[in-house]
Amino acid sequence: MPANVVGQLSILDIILTLSFTLFIILVGRRFLSSFPWSDIRQLLTGFRITNSHPFSLSRAYTSYLRYASLSKQEVSTMEQSYGSIGRAHKQLGYKIGYPRKLNQFREAIGRNTTITTAIATLAAQEFSLEDNSYETNQADLSRVRESMKHFVRDWSEEGAGEREQIFKPILHVLQQVPPSERAGLKVLVPGSGLGRLAWEISQLGFTTKAVEFSYFMTLAMRFLFSPNTTTKPNQHQIQPFAHWFSHQRSNETLFRAVHVPDVVPRFSSNLELIEDDFLKLQPPRVPTSSASADSGYDFIVTLFFIDTSINIFSTIEKIYYLLRPGGTWINLGPLLWPASAQAKAELSLDEVMHLVQQIGFTVHGAGEKDDIQAPRTVECEYTSDKHAMMRWIYRAEFWVASKRS
């Protein structure tokens, strides 16, 4: 066959292949409303979203690995700033012990590095990762530090009071289900962070799935749940507040050590971690039937989650879609929308509640005085430093809603 004919056939094959791919995409977009355009980009370009977004596996792994170097750069900047003051002020600083404080900060970084390196080492083993050329910055360092504050919130004795305040209303609703029925019920916990709430729910006997998009969270969670790295209570020691010099009463509280975990958690047959975008999930199906009426979660629990939405309409629609008819949505949280106008819409509580009903939920109303499902305001904190000179109090809203059949 002549070469020019072969060339024409090759070009024709390429055109036909691309046309067929686009046809499949458009058909999928028409009939599968949950099919996101980001997936189209992956199909056409091979671009891996999971390795590029700010909370990706590669970025989180690299950030944990480089925690020490990023933190020491910060200390160096602080030392330079202090070094720029006059001699008289340096003498005063020496008398009150400020240079020693900066040295203590360096020592705390060294102790925290033991944990961050262990998290990265486990991630490298479980995901076959290698150090790479990803650029890391102060935002990545902040995410690592945030995960260490979540260690305190979720898995320390110090965080027990904060957990009690926000977990109790949710767990009380679930505890109304007879224990003999719980194993057959499926619970989804989006934005599960380091997984304590999901673990608590699984301990009640429910089949539980924890969903978390950020690998900064899930790598830390894996570290706590792995029998290779965590074998006993209070095994690990961190200094989670050492980087935050503001609002501190003393250096003793600033550099205090916190031990984790207060209990040893494990994944189990009724606790699964899903490391993915909540909006990409599909409802589970009953093995004995493919009927849509049998699919869906029995409960979806959102704790400090819905206000992280870029598009709150999509988030609540997804919650509705993932629940079975008659399924229950339990929510507790504030409305702190993403900064810098990232959110498509920033709704008031009244607007959110109207939207919930418009999408197809029936919100449990105020009933008896001690009705555990009644909507109410819960004053609480979030990853707080209980010894600091300031407190950020959320007046979070709690509600229970049912998906109308």
Chart the SSEs and their pairings.
Blueprint: H1 3-31, H2 37-45, H3 57-65, H4 67-83, H5 87-96, H6 98-127, H7 138-155, H8 160-174, H9 179-182, E1 186-190, H10 196-203, E2 207-211, H11 215-225, E3 236-238, H12 251-254, E4 258-260, E5 271-274, E6 297-303, H13 312-322, E7 323-333, H14 349-359, E8 361-363, E9 376-380, E10 394-403
Parallel strand pairs: 1-2, 1-6, 2-5, 6-7
Antiparallel strand pairs: 3-4, 7-10, 8-10, 9-10
Helix pairs in contact: 3-6, 3-7, 4-6, 6-11
List its salient traits.
globular, alpha/beta, 10 strands, two-stranded antiparallel ribbon, disordered N terminus, 14 helices, 405 residues
Characterise the protein shown here.
It is a single chain. The chain is an alpha/beta fold. Helix content is 46%, strand content 14%. The strands form 2 sheets. Strands 1, 2, 5, 6, 7, 8, 9 and 10 form an 8-stranded mixed sheet that branches. Strands 3-4 form a two-stranded antiparallel sheet. α3 crosses α7. The N and C termini lie far apart (63 Å). The N terminus is likely disordered.
Q: What's the N-to-C terminus distance?
A: 63 Å
Largest sheet: 8 strands, mixed
Number-wise, the strands total 10
Sequence stretches where pLDDT stays below 50 over 5 or more residues: 1-9, 27-50
SSE string:
HHHHHHHHHEHEHEHEEEHEHEEE
Radius of gyration: 25 Å
Roughly how much helix do the residues carry, as a percent range?
40-55%
Structural class: alpha/beta
Averaged pLDDT: 89
The geometry reads as globular
